[in-house]
Structures are given as C-alpha cells and as structure tokens.
Amino acid sequence: MELRWLDDFCALARTRHFSRAADERHVSQPTFSRRIKLLEEEIGVTLIDRNSLPLTLTPAGEVFLLSCEDISTRLRQTKSQCRAIDQQQQEQLTLATGQALLLNFLPGWRQQLATQLQGNDGLEVNLSANNWIGSEYSQALLQGQCDLLLTYWHPAMQLDAELKPEAVDFITLGQDQLIPMSASNEYGQVKFDLDAIDPAPQIPYLAYHPQTLLAQVIAAQVQPLFTTQLLTVNENSQAISSKALIQQGFGLGWLPRSLAQEELQQGKLHIAGGTQWHIGLQIRLYRRRNDANIKLQNLWQMLIKTVA
Predict the structure, then answer these.
(1) Which one, of 247, 243, 254, 262, lies nearest residue 278 by Cα?
(2) What gap in Å lies between CA 251 and CA 207, rounded to an integer?
(3) Which CATH superfamily is 176-281 part of?
C-alpha cells in the first residue's frame, strides 16, 4: 500500500467526485481512479459505491475513512517533527573534548559564549568522545564526526602532525599547566616529592596511557629530568581517573592545574615538584577549514574577534 493512496481516498470522500478529487490531488482522473482501485484491492473490500450519485462510501468505506484520516494526520505530524529535528541537527554544532576540559574549562567558556551570543550557544557536546584516546580526537575532527575539537596543545604532542594548517584552523582560548601532584602524608605534607633532599629509591608513578596526548608531553619534557626511578603502578587515559588515584595516595602523577585547583586549595593535593617539572599547555579550539556550515563560520568569526 502506498501512503498517498490514503490521501487520495480522503480527497474522494470529501469531494464525492472522482474528477474533482483528481484535480485536488493534481493527477489525471484515470490515474486517480486506478489508485483508488488499487487501494480497494489492497484492503480487500469495496470502499466506494460507484452506482450512487453523488458517490457514497460503503459501510466498510466509512469505517476505513476514520482510520485513514487519523493515519494521514499522524503522518503529516510525524513528517513535520522529523523535518524540525533534521533542521535542528543541521543547525547544531558538535564539539568533542576530553573529560578534564569537559568538566573544568568548557562550562565557564560556554557560559561566556552564551552571554556574547545573547542566547544558547548551539553547541552539542559529543559525550562519546570521553572514550577516545590520542589521535582519535584529531581523526574524528578530520572525518566530520565533530565540528569542533577542544583540546590541550603542546609542541611535543602529535597534534601538529595530524592537524595540518592546510586542513584546520585553531583559536587559542586559554592556558593551563601540567603539574606533578601528590596526596598528603600522615604529617599533612607532600607524600611523594620529586625534589626531596633524601629521595626514595622508587616513587610509585600514576602514568597516562602512552597513546594519550598528555603522556607524549610528559615523555618529552620531564622524563629526561628524572633523578629517581618512577615505578609505574597504573596507566589511565583520563586525567580525572589519575586525579582520584593520586588523591587516595597511590602515587605521584601529573595533572592539569585547573583540574586540581580546588583540591590544592583545600590541602587534599600537593604540588610534588618545582617549576622545572611544570609544563605549560595551551587550550585550543580546532575546526576543519573546508566546513561550509554557516553557523560554524559565524561562530568562528565571533571567536576570532573575542580573543583578538
């Protein structure tokens, strides 16, 4: 059964005339008559009494008309809803980021953005990005799985090799630091200290998975400075997980300062080394250069003016 046959039948029931109903449906009368006949064959009963003038519906046709009108109305409403959803999705911009920036930086930045836009920022956060690791973020942007990528950046990361200038644009939105941190010992002092006068032979180390961007930075920037052996006791792909283990005293690890600011102020975490162990990070927002989304282009131009 074709859905248009239902509208044909409703038009015939309304006009009680094949010719006028065919005109209303913008088809020839033979074509219209054939479609009504096909509908009757599909239903298996006669719906129209063709011997009466004007045409009348058979008892079965009267019953069918009620369902037909309901189905036709529901179909139009569903079409309208689907088109509205599709339009909304086309207007929505998808942003991907990791957990640390998702929970720390993004809420405040979106609030500022909404104020500048005088309304909703139109961003939809891709929560599946929480399961991505390393180069999966840049590949997701390049392959169109997201419109925007919010990420930490450092020259030691592989981002520049993957997100080439001819393919992407970026805006630097802020700064952060990657800092070694530790829980307190029983005396309320730093439990694991990279600068200790009498260092322990081994320090339990809560590392990042080697494929993560933060692991790339640590390997390049601070591992050559190690004067004592760090014994890797755990690897995590997310700074949030490392923070929980560090706070429980399981070892020393590097965290973005913004992620641990509250715990540092409360004394629940301590900085576990001097500035030679601190690594500066940029917070960057990337987009594809060939993305023709008008809303993205307008947002990007506004952001350029804001950070200029």
Answers:
(1) 254
(2) 9
(3) Periplasmic binding protein-like II (3.40.190.10)
Q: Is it true that domain 3-89 has CATH number 1.10.10.10?
A: yes
Among 105, 252, 74, which residue's Cα sits nearest to residue 176?
105
Q: What share of the chain is helix, strand, coil (3-state, %, to 5)?
A: 50, 20, 30
Q: Where in the chain is the domain with CATH 1.10.10.10?
A: 3-89
Question: Which pLDDT band holds residue 91 (cuts at 50, 70, 90)?
Answer: low
> Degrees (nearest 5) of the Cα angle 122, 128, 129?
80
Q: Are 106 and 150 in contact (CB under 8 A)?
A: yes
Secondary structure E strands in 38-146? 48-49, 56-57, 93-97, 123-125
For domain 93-175+283-307, give its CATH number from 3.40.50.1000, 3.40.190.10, 3.40.1570.10, 3.30.1460.30: 3.40.190.10
pLDDT single digits (tens) 17-56: 999 999 999 999 999 999 999 989 998 999 998 888 888 9
**Predicted TM-score of the model (pTM):** 0.70
pLDDT tens per residue, range 221-256: 887 777 667 889 999 999 999 999 999 999 999 999
CA–CA gap between residue 280 and residue 19 (Å, rounded)? 78
Within the chain, which residue ranges are assigned CATH 3.40.190.10? 93-175+283-307, 176-281
